Amino acid sequence: MHEVSTFRLYLLRATYLLIAVGLAFAIWPGILDHDASMTLMRGVVHAMLGAVSLLALLGVRYPLQMIPVLLFELVWKTLWLLAFALPLWLSHQMDPRTMESVFECLLGVVIVPIALPWGYLWRHYVKKSGDHWRRATT
């Protein structure tokens, strides 16, 4: 018996591919061709999101094993929206560039939960016993 339907696996693969392709167009040009004036944090963000894009490509092949990549996407975008974008919106200080980021993050916060196999996550990340803290002696 399969734990996750074929449809859900393809939905996961499509989500990984969307992330990989989206970041390929948005982030990789800045990684491959940047100038020395790029700020430290902008470089860090580009490198981190570049790594996410490569890991998302692995998710196309191994959709269940790479679920932590989708959880990372969901969590960081939700945190950013709540901790940074929401206060700006509530104080009417939202500029067009921030609003663009809001829409990009909202897209991920909507799509990723639809794609995630919540029953599988519950069984394998909540109910399942964690790994032992020390290696058993043989």
UniProtKB/TrEMBL annotation:
Top-rank lineage group of the source organism: Bacteria
Keyword line: Membrane, Transmembrane, Transmembrane helix
Transmembrane segments: 14-32, 44-64, 70-90, 102-121
UniProt name for this protein: Uncharacterized protein
Provenance organism: Eiseniibacteriota bacterium
